[in-house]
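Subject: complex prediction, re-run

Hi both,

The earlier run crashed halfway through, so I resubmitted it with identical inputs.
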Amino acid sequence: MNGTQAQQSAALHSTFEAAPGPRLWASMCLVVLFLAVSCSGDAPPSRLHPEENVLRIAVPSDPRSLDPAIAYDVVTWPLVRAMFHGLIDYDDDLNLVPWHARSWTISEDGRTITFKLRRDIRFSNGRQITSEDFAWSLQRILDPATKSPGQGFYRNIAGARAFQDSSADRVTGLRTPDPETLVIELAHPDLPFLYCMAMPFAYAVPREEVERLGETFGRYPVGAGPFVLADWQRGTRMRLEKNPSYYRADEVRLEAIELMVGGDETLHMMMFERGELDIASVTATGIPDADFIRVMKDPVLSERVAHQPLNAIQYLSMNTEMPPFDHVNVRRAVNHAIDRQRIVSLISDRGILARGVLPPGMPGFNEELEGYDHDPEKARRLLAEAGYPDGFTTELMITAQSGIDTKIGQAVQQDLGEVGITVEIRPVTGSTRIEATGRRGAVPFSTFGWYQDYPDPSNFLDVLLNGNRITEVNSTNVAFYDNASVNALLDEASTSTDMDYRLALYREAERLVVEDAPWVFLYYPQMYLLRQPWLKGLKLNPVWPIRYELMWIEP
Amino acid sequence: MLSRILRRLGWAAVILWGTTVITFLIVHAVPADPVRVYAGANADAETIERIRTEMGFDDPLIVQYGRYIGNLLRGDLGTSLVTGERVLDALLAKFPVTLSLALTAVCLWMLMSVPLGVLTAKYRGRAIDRAVLIVSLVAISLPVFWLARMLQYYLAYRTGLFPVAGWAGWTHIILPAATLALVITGYYARLVHTNMVEVLNADYVRVARAKGIPEYAVLFKHGLRNAVIPVITVLGLDMAALMGGVVFTENVFALPGLGVLALQSVFNLDVPMIMGVVLFSAAMVVCANIVVDFVYMWIDPRVEGM
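This time it finished cleanly. Structure:
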């Protein structure tokens, strides 16, 4: 099926009759050495296309779709943002700010949100956008035929369930009294719902184009953003060009964005250093592991590194329903046994030590949480108390393609070995791991990472640790952690409309979670971006690390 | 002859059908959920079940297979779960890249291996023969992905002689094709060598030499023409194998060919796309086999009885 096979069959069939003499070997080595030396030589990096104001970047694989209803990953979202327009957005302190909506009000009972819209914004096909477009776009997310992975975020809109079950032909909670007003009624009060309205799923799409293009809308998107799609050869390249009819077109300084599709981070790093790319990598991990230390020690390159702590956490999930992890002291012992500082240094310090669930950039982050320090002695004692004085044997599931998972796995294996716990590492593909860990009673111990959907504690605590969210398959609560007091706190917080009160409830819930230790809290990842000196306007924030509309090239 | 052709085609259909069954079973036996991959790690259980129903993955396996074969017989290979692109369109879009890589590589390695094979046959046992032998041995033993990275590092990244990666014109095909050619040339050089040695010992060559025919004519007209026939057979099969996608080389150089498509669809658990790529590769190999068989029969009528 590939070249290697041809090569193998070739090697198998070949017959060689003579053996080389030592002199020949020596001369051959010299030739190879000479070739290697004559090929090397440092070329100064310079921009390959100096005169254009075009951003050049590379992504490992094609976005699956540029349809805001379908796209759901960290590489595609910035592209969707570049081509579509939403009601509200974040400022750099993660406050929600007006965008397409001039203003919004929330009713006393927290169940009705009223948006007042601008009237001067048009789709790139020339038609003016009204509140009807936003209402239709939201209803489209909920339509089962759209197959939107984001439908869960909007199921709290009144009448959404009836619509999804086909017992109503429209979502009754979406109303448009006039072209400038959008009223959303919720089934129950839900403060974080506003964050869902800032997610790309809620961006406006033109109904006439969606109906005309059908399933291919994600291939030929039409929006109202600062850029429009000019060309997309799947698996090869994509080109976005400035949208001249964008309502703030004079503020957009890039003429175009040129994406190369394909290759891995190592390859993109080489292309970056040749001046072929303006940003080394736009993926979450940013700079390849193998190059990171070199880049940070290089006086020139390190100057061009931008970094941003992400609202994300890397953890080990212990299935609290499966022995021996059903015993709280075993889970605490595992937390004490693992040297998280060493794990962070294994990933070149690209993480902040975690002492709890919520990352530092998240509202409700608790500085005073103490977490678990590295204390093998205490771990042994706790294990003995739990009835495992000689330890036990368990299996840690990791993602095989992930270099970080492999490092974590080996470190955990060694640390737990010190206290008598034998860990067998079980590498599987990412898709297998997601499926298996979501099934009840299937996986005792697994690595896990979570990246926020929106900056509210509920997106971590409620989604990942509420016992009422446990399902038999596809559970997002992969520790199958079920503590009645925690559930009660989380349920109360999710319907409360008082932000300070909610944060207090989440803090208390987090404190209980840390005490129960369903996870090994490892670290909060940080994103590192390496840019060329001529690229300006790279402003990172934890929700939007990449915002193309702010960037420009200054040769 | 006609009945023979029909019989071969009938078997080809059976083989391809068997391929669909095996691939379908393997893809569905993988302990992973394509819907989960599609919906992303953050989607909740209800969302996943709704999407599963919409995609038809909750039907029994036999129903799903029946649906697939039914569509296949109508020439519809299905639609990618991930991109919504028609599988046939994707295959046809990637095929030219893989084809040009394969053809360039074949040209390169034939241009190198035939002269080397003739030369080493002519000077059998001499220093040049041994040197070529050693270099061949080393080249064949090199892992493709390593050689690809080395060429990329020295000839593209360090010196800028070639583009590092991507697909934007003919210069992008040279390094990948050279990678393939370098590892395969050695084998073909030996193949030509062995056949040439045999031919050069044949009576008719001795007769030709005795008649005083110039040496180049002896080598290339009387020798090579006869020695190259078995090489063509192997070449046909290797071409078919390359055309199914050159996974390592394409991935290292980010060439948007069938190999990259295959790998991406496996990572995404894109069931219709995986089926499509496998079926396409199988069809390539089956076709090549048929062609080679008939070419053989045509060249050498004694093979008739096989």
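The mean pLDDT of chain B is 86.

- K.
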